[in-house]
# Entry
Amino acid sequence: MNYNVILVDADDSTLNHTVNIFKRFPNFTLVSSYREVKSAIGQSSVFDPNLFLIDIENTDNRNMLPAFADIFPQAIVIGIMSKWDADITFESIRGGAIGCILKPFSGEDLTDAIKLFSRGVRNTIPSSCSFFSAKGRSGKTTLIANLALSIVQQTGDLVAIIDADLQFSDMAIFFDVEPVTTIVEATRDVKFLSPLRLNPYFLPVADNIQLLCGPRRLEYSELVDVESLTAVVRMAQTLFHYVLIDLPSGLSPFSTSMCEVADTVFICGMLNTNFEVKHIKRTLPLFEKLERDGKKLNIVFSRADDKQKLEIEKQLGHKVAAVLPNEFLMVSAANSGNIKNIMNQKNLLAEKINKLAEGIINHAD
Amino acid sequence: MAQGRSSIVITVFSTTSGIGKTLVATNLAAGLALDGFAVCLIDLDLQYGDVANYLNLQDVPTIADIPTSIPANKIRNYISEYRYGNVAFSVIPAPYQIANSYNVDERTVLSVINHLDYFNFIIVDTKSEFNDMNMAVMDVSTIINFLCVADFVPAIKNLKNGYEAILRFGYDVNKVRPVLNRSGSQTLIDAEDVEVVLGKNFYHRLANDFKAASDSIHSGCPIVLSNSNSKLKKDIYDLVGLYTNRPKKAPVEKATGNGLISFFKRLWSR
Ligand SMILES: Nc1ncnc2c1ncn2[C@@H]1O[C@H](COP(=O)(O)OP(=O)(O)OP(=O)(O)O)[C@@H](O)[C@H]1O
Ligand SMILES: Nc1ncnc2c1ncn2[C@@H]1O[C@H](COP(=O)(O)OP(=O)(O)O)[C@@H](O)[C@H]1O
Ligand SMILES: [Mg+2]
Ligand SMILES: [Mg+2]
# Structure
């Protein structure tokens, strides 16, 4: 594909650099460049541009991003910045940019970025969910894998799963893949990464689903620190439409930070002895505080039916987003790495998960 | 390691959760008490412990109530009794409030264990996780009862990794006893295959009996003390016997495995 590129950047060195690298990339033509965003908005139309490179470290430029989307609906906008900043990137993506790259970029970077940032079907506002459980064996990992499949099925968008259940990560087994790079390398390197460079750490596990695998060895879990993990998640949030985060059970600096960085928190439990409900009730005040601060809270119980749902809601004094039925197929599917089959079948579990996924999708709209 | 102490410390640990640690810990305590030993059960699943739930104990002191530098002669004030008929054992439950779980540190717990030396057995229930607390307690344990269940491939990967890690951490292989819970449940994985994966045979197997397990949990009475006639009750009592040198009955019969299932093979040949 050929690109008519317009550069919006007050820094002359960016212009020189762009002119230079485009010499080797004949499919990119720099049709015009502007120091000020106002001129770009006003004058660009005569050049029939289909790609804008806009310096998003400049606040005026960022504020005008929605105008570009309005006036040039068939053009794509990529933000350029000299230093990685998750907040600025977020704001730009919300404004209509498809993603951001770091200066100085190469022609290859630009080609990769266009390909990478145009994956999926539409440009939703990125959305992320963390999955908390008080005790283990709550059905968390199963739920995440199925939600990912359902979101892709319903939207064609791109979903990332981050397996942050550091000691006992098993998402790779659910999808029957062998980890290559993992969360250990991603957190180690994150200081030197941009979304473009983070992407290869993710492993494609199904159509439009990419997984950042957990540590390959139990001891390596020690190497992952909360701060770097938060940085990885924030970067991933600008790279994928949906980011789903699997967590170790229980409260820890890790699980609370991951719940803070996501916009939806799922609290998962599996109905077994009924003490699970009691444990969630003891934990709920912490999360209700986040809920009051605007976070979406979804409580999900596995192996429960609608009648039990009412009882649980009464006990918790909080709405339950969904109950998932006991589905033996689930166990055998996960055992054989065939989890993809579940969502292709007609059963109550798939139905309930599709409903939950719809909730996530609509929240992102 | 377990120097200068005479009581036997058995830690019930696993690297998968929800597989019966608490059930086994409460029943070990009850079974040993039934055999006439002085037993204390400690719940170190600090945030979400279930010992008090499964034994229906309320409003008793918890591990978080014990002061950091408690003198040995004061420890009795913080121990509660569980009694069923004329069998009794001591219990120190996990905190009722999650916030209080953060106040419990390894040093206190280790000195508590030392002060409890007048018991024959100290049984410790844990959370399935490698953390400082669990490691400290496993260090001073006589035996680590490493609980396994053969129902779910991802969980078995974690059992294998966990078991190997424990050995890598330097624990004596004789001290770590893999015990299979829910043996014979309708799963797609053979126990023998798990033994191959672990590279070690199960020390003992406990039958799968969901009704007996959940009845006991809801009634607050350990299975070994109940009048249930389930195989699970017998299996648990036999496990107790293995720890007390009670004369052995017939050895655990070994079924012949039908070889590794293909996905399983794939998984472990990686
Ligand atoms: N042998 C068994 N047969 C049938 N069900 C069992 C058996 N052992 C345990 N269970 C059931 O498994 C569930 C989990 O048991 P338990 O709470 O003891 O596990 P745990 O390992 O302590 O879990 P957690 O890691 O969450 O603390 C309970 O509902 C219990 O009834
Ligand atoms: N709806 C369900 N019906 C039946 N079994 C389920 C269901 N959801 C999960 N499971 C099973 O429960 C076990 C624990 O699930 P998992 O997702 O690994 O939980 P966690 O990640 O919280 O430990 C697995 O054996 C899984 O197959
Ligand atoms: Mg999991
Ligand atoms: Mg337990």
Summary: Residues A 133, 136-142, 302-303, 324, 326-327, 330-331, 334, 349; B 152, 154 surround adenosine-5'-diphosphate (ligand 2) (CB under 6 Å). Confidence is low (pLDDT under 50) at residues 250-270 of chain B.
